[in-house]
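Run log, item B.
One chain of 136 residues. Sequence copied directly from the ordering sheet:
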Amino acid sequence: FLTEPGEYLTEDFKRAVDELSVEQIEGRIGVFYATKLELGGMVRKSYTMQVAEEDTEESVNEELKMSYGTALMGGSAEHGLGVSTREGNRHAEMNTEWTAYGGDTTVWLGKDLNSDEGLARVQEAWAATFTDENLY
């Protein structure tokens, strides 16, 4: 539930949220609000790349997924920025930036994140490092 909460919603509920106004949601489903907030951590890998005229959103997404897996976290985590050339266009540069907050973020460094299993292992190890003192 923590990484894909939308998978646990019914299709009717998803459709209602997409189609109804706030007032209609309140009238049909009811008022709801957070009763609890759990702080934790965040890991983000950002890609900034040069594109060519023939690039599309779909072609760029496919190139990233082929290089970094479906979670787009592939490779290994390194501190700071990295510059490389794109697979689909050797003349275009691509920058990657890792950002991590909460827990012991060094758990991410140097780990193989090319597979969903490798990513899950690192996430599990990282989750074990959280304390009340190092929440994000």
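Observations after the first pass:
- DSSP finds four helices and three strands in the chain.
- The CA atoms of residues 8 and 76 lie 30 Å apart.
Flagged for discussion on Thursday.
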